[in-house]
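A reminder from the course coordinator: this example appears on the midterm review sheet, so study it carefully.

Given structure:
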């Protein structure tokens, strides 16, 4: 796995229930990609090939808009190592969730 990306998608809505509904749609999309992912309280982390993860990040914004958000902000963190392996989700936090 050459990349790990953490994405926080923030739909521009005022209602917490609406925010959660839209974010749930984004997370469902991420889950459907087939890549390993972890949902945290502020962001979702996904592991896989760099270019494919960047496409997923882009699509997350489109999903939020299609779900009804008038605007969307995203905060993205990327760990990328083209020649080797990045530190996995399991190695980072597995000991805390055993």
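Designed residues:
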């Amino acid at each position: 796995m050459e990349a790990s990306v953490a994405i926080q998608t923030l739909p521009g809505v005022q209602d917490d229930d609406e925010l959660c509904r839209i974010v749930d749609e984004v997370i469902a999309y991420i889950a459907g990609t087939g890549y390993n992912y972890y949902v945290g309280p502020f962001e979702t982390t996904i592991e896989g090939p760099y270019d494919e993860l960047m496409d997923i990040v882009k699509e997350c914004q489109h999903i939020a808009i299609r779900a009804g958000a008038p605007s969307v902000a995203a905060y993205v963190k990327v760990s990328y190592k083209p020649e080797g392996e990045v530190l996995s989700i399991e190695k980072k936090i597995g000991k805390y969730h055993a």
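The chain has a mean pLDDT of 96. The first strand starts at residue 3 and ends at 11.
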